[in-house]
Amino acid sequence: MVLNLSKNKIKVIPAKIKELSNLVELDLSSNKIENLPVELFSLYNLKKLILNRNDIKTLPAEIANLKNLEILDLWGTQVVEFPKEVSQLNSTLKILDLRVVYMSEKQQDNIQKLLPDVKIYFSKGCNCD
Cα–Cα distances in Å, from 121 out to 61, 87, 111? Predict the structure, then answer.
């Protein structure tokens, strides 16, 4: 099952999202989302999560629950640091898109160390430590 809620000015993802347990792809791009509810990370069948162009600043440790996730698109968000638990996705995650995310080369290196087997797309790192 695929759900595309892009470009809807959504600010809050309702906790009832967890009821969509058969979701394989969720597109929440181009909204006004700042926080990701823990319930989002109970969508265990999710393979593709598109969160680009939102106001998200952090990922919760529960991201590790998405054991089938193959693509995580955070293009144009404000996420610059990842919880160490994200490393549990190293064997399944294939693509992580972090383009147009303002972060230092050191922050990029830290993310790459957590996910050494993942193809990560970065924009050029800034000298902003």
Answer: 21, 17, 11
